[in-house]
Design brief:
207 residues; C8orf32 fold; 11 strands
Length: 207
């Protein structure tokens, strides 16, 4: 079970590192890095699960828009990402929203130690926020997985490219090495605004 005490303890172990924000890479920077950054598209619909989550957790989604930021990917940050990814993946027992809550889709923190992909993402995001990473670099992202099903992962925007934390994959991979079709993700400026990532995946999701 993941308790609030465990959340605090894990966050404290990460607070010794200083997360240095790097300037946002523009289009030229993304091209120079060979597709290391997810291609940001137009504004799109916000997943109902996020809207409902924000209604139930006051303060989790509040705040004014902020400048887009990437974190500097050094050894300390990589170690922190691996630690959070591994511990959350190991601590949560996977269960569908229907079996867990009796509904088709629900985003919630896994406070009882159980949850689906949405719970993994929300917990990882919460721990990394409490460890001091900027929210602009922690982006919930909708993808189509290798089985053709909708799935949620956490994108971490770094100065060396976008990395994906995923409960279905033990490794932290660059976004373009996951084998997923990317549909949409949170805007870096405002977590309540979502943008499309890949037009081909949007068509696949719609079908």
């Amino acid at each position: 079970m993941i308790s609030t005490g465990k959340i605090a303890a894990l966050a404290l172990t990460l607070l010794g590192a200083a997360w240095i924000a790097a300037p946002q890479a523009g289009a030229a920077g993304a091209q120079a890095n060979g597709g290391a950054f997810e291609p940001a598209g137009a504004r799109t619909s916000v997943p109902w699960g996020w809207v409902d989550y924000c209604r139930r957790y006051a303060g989790e989604c509040d705040g004014a828009a902020l400048p887009a930021t990437r974190v500097a990917l050094d050894g300390a940050l990589r170690d922190a990402l691996v630690k959070v990814d591994d511990e959350v993946n190991a601590a949560i027992d996977p269960v569908s929203a229907m079996d867990h809550w009796g509904v088709v889709n629900k985003w919630d923190l896994p406070l009882d130690g159980r949850g689906d992909c949405n719970s993994y993402v929300l917990m990882k995001r919460k721990l990394l926020l409490e460890a001091g990473l900027p929210r602009q670099a922690l982006l919930a992202t909708v993808v189509i997985d290798k089985q053709g099903e909708g799935h949620l992962v956490l994108t971490v925007a770094t100065d060396r490219g976008d990395l994906v934390l995923d409960n279905l994959e033990p490794r932290i991979l660059p976004w373009d090495e996951t084998g997923y079709d990317f549909v949409k993700r949170q805007s870096q400026e405002d977590p309540n605004v979502w943008i499309s990532v890949n037009a081909r995946a949007v068509v696949a999701a719609a079908n």
